[in-house]
Amino acid sequence: MAQKIVFIFLLVLIIVKLSSVASEKSEANALLKWKASLDNQSQVVLSSWKNGTSPCTTWTGIQCDTSNSVTAINLENNLLKGTLHALHFSSLPNLLTFDIYNNSFHGIIPPQIGNMSKISRLNFSSNPFYGSIPQEMWTLTSLRSLDLSYCSYLTGPISASIANLTNLTYLDLGGFNLNCSIPPGIGKLNNLVLLDFQYSNLFGSIPREIGMLSKLEHLDLTENTLTGNIPSTIANLSRLNILLLPNNTLSGPIPPPLWNMSNLIWLWLYSNHLSGTIPTSVGNLVNLESLRVDDNQLYGSIPSTIGNMTKLTEISLCFNSFSKSIPASIGSLINLETLCLQTNSLSGSIPDTIGNLKRLSDLELSTNMLSGNIPQAINNLTNMYNFVVAKNNLNGHLPPQICLGGSLEYLNAQSNHFTGSVPSSLKNCSSIVMITLQDNHLEGDISQDFGVYPNLSYIDVSNNQFYGQISPNWGKCDSLQNFIIAKNNISGGIPPQIAEATNLGKLHLFSNQLTGNIPKELGKLKNLVELKIANNHLSGKIPSEIGLLQALTRLHLGGNDLIGSIPRQVVQLPNLLELNLSNNKLDGSIPSDFKTLQPLYSLDLSGNLLNGAIPRVLGEVKHLQCLNLSHNNLSGNIPSSFDGMSALNSINISYNQLDGPLPDNKAFLHASIESLKNNKGLCGNVTGLVPCPSSSPSRKSHKVVLLVLLLIFGVLALALSVISISVYILCIKARKKEDPAKEMQPEELFSIWSRDGKMTFKTIMEATNNFDDKYLIEIGGQGSVYRAELPGMVVAVKKL
Amino acid sequence: MASFTPFSLLFLLLLQYPFLSLSSNSEGNALHALRSRLSDPNNVLQSWDPTLVNPCTWFHVTCNSNNQVIRLDLGNSNISGILGPELGQLHHLQYLELYRNELSGKIPEELGKLKNLISMDLYGNKLEGRIPKSFGKLKSLKFLLNDNKLSGTIPRELTHLKNLKVFDVSNNDLCGTIPVDGNFGSFPQKSFENNRLNGPELKGLVPYDFGC
Asked: Which positions 180-199 of B are in contact with A (Cβ < 8 Å)?
């Protein structure tokens, strides 16, 4: 008996072993069959998948259990390319993990995935699968982790049956077009720890049921079009660490219970339409490391309890309507690296306690109503990278040691009431990228206070009281794109070395005391878009090399002592929008190198010694809106080409020697006498101007000649038509016997109509025999249609 | 639960949220999106820094006193690529100057949203497809110049543009007839030459898409 039992036992063992071998073989076959369907590159990657070997020992990415059945396929980041169509899922009944993250698997996700009855972790993320998520996905109730994120061509919707997947702890469906709302059934997934629907084109509101996910630690709904209020049930998620709702259209107040979620580490609500205030209970969030509520409609004061959130590294309240002062308790946030309060209605002074924030690197306070001095303690902050205090009412001095740590890149203090000099640490601040100090009361010698900056791209110190000369060292600033020192007391010449800064796009030095010539070397600045050096004491001629500045759009040289003529190369600049050479001592005539399609919209040559006539081609510049040629010595008539200048809306030609009639152009006819006066003999229909005579003596003889010519031409034309008509009649009579249906090109018909209307009318009368009923085709509501055989084609003629 | 420590989460998030995020200026973001579709060998868009508060300091962009973009001057810049729908977000744009480049693809319909547009110069590119009907909504338009590979008919909606002074579609592949209503009666012949157009519209007799 015992022997029989042992025998049966051994038999069973053998059968089990055989069947496991058999199933191991069928699993291998299924995988090999799938491998064969992939591309050539994939064959190389999966070269270890060989017939005859065991998947469990040597095959890349394959794991088995103790009975040698495949439980895991891990093929992430492998450049595999193909589909899942040839994978026989039923042959892998014990598959628990299927991870093909970041490959090039395409085609649809086959419904056969429903056969993976034990599947626990499914990661298809970052593959170009397309089509919608198959229904079978929502039957995989054993799933604990599902990641389909960034399968960019995949589409939703999320079925309500998602509620079946109650074992899910990790769900990521972000980065493709779900285009649906969040189903309330999501609340049934009470094991969820991470839920990610970022960039999914979700609409509708966040369902209240989200509060049922009691184990949730990470919720990301970034960048969708979610609307409505943030449900207060979110506060029930007591384990929540990460709450990300930015870039939606959520509205209403932030629900007060949210401020009790003391496990929150990251709270991002920025770029929504949230309104209301931040209550003092915000201080409860003692574990918070990043708070971002920027770009909403929040208002009220910043509670001083924010000082309790000592783990904060980043706090951003910018682009709201917060008011009153910055609380001094901000100094308690010793881990703070980023503080953004810009564009609010904050007032009062910057608290001294800010000096305690040793790690502070990004300070943005601009566009508020802050007053008082910048605290001295800021000089001790060595990590400063981004220092932005622009557009406030601040006064006193700029912190001298602002670049002490050598990491300052952005210094923006424009539009305040700062006095004193440029920070001394700026001289050797090689990290600096942008310096904007314009519209203050700063002073100093610019040749001493600045150094050489390899990374500086933008400097604007306009509208201050700087003096001294422009150092040639600025040419060594290889990254310099904007060099703006307008409205100061700078003297000396424009150093030619500045042209070595070949990335210069905007060079603004206007309203200073500069002397000397415009260096011809400026022609080397291939990227120069704006050259504004008006209102200085520059002398000499305008170098023709300016014509090399192909990218130039705005050239302002007005208010200097420039002599010589206007180089034609300047007029020829193909991208010029504004040309202002006013109030110099330029002579010669206006070049005639203008082109019809050039984009020039503003031309001011007033206040010079220009002579000669206004070039006819100037009237053909289609885009010209503003034209000022006043206070010159221009003579002759205004060219008739000005009639058609439809964009022109402002002109001034006063104080010249012009005569003749005003052009038939609304800008001239609506101009006041101030813009036309003091010329030689201008006439026209404008108050204050002499009306033009109906015929002037010099024209009478012209008129007689014209009349005679017209008479002769008229007689000739009449004779020609008589001859032609007879020829036509003869032709028609002949052609009636030939094939009349020769197709004439539509363009030819068009040209007859436009050129020789009288001829065709007579021909039609002939062809229809004065609209005889014999040729009537149809009678319509507005007239009758007749058939007319013209030479070369048959037409329908409608007689109204 | 395994593997969801704050550190791994932070790592995941840092991958997606770089240090200096894009500014919340929608016009700057629109121009940044425009740039992403373009190829710019001459680096004319080098100054287009999307982290700045607005695009008003960018070269080739002109703003009004409210820091809203009114001009985009990118003519003769050797740029290629396609124009995207984002241009329609520049609500205050008056001058769209993209002439003489290598732009291809279709003219986005969204340009019809630019209520303040005065001048649209797209000539000298390789744009194809139809002239969008939405251009009929550009009530302020004065200049519309094209010299591309445009096809289809001239939309009749354009005859409602009371301010249109210059309309040049010469050198394209347009078909059908030339509208005669509104300002179209005063455009010279040469505005339409070198197309496959069939002369002026003869209402009731020759359909508008004759020859298309």
From this structure: 189, 198-199
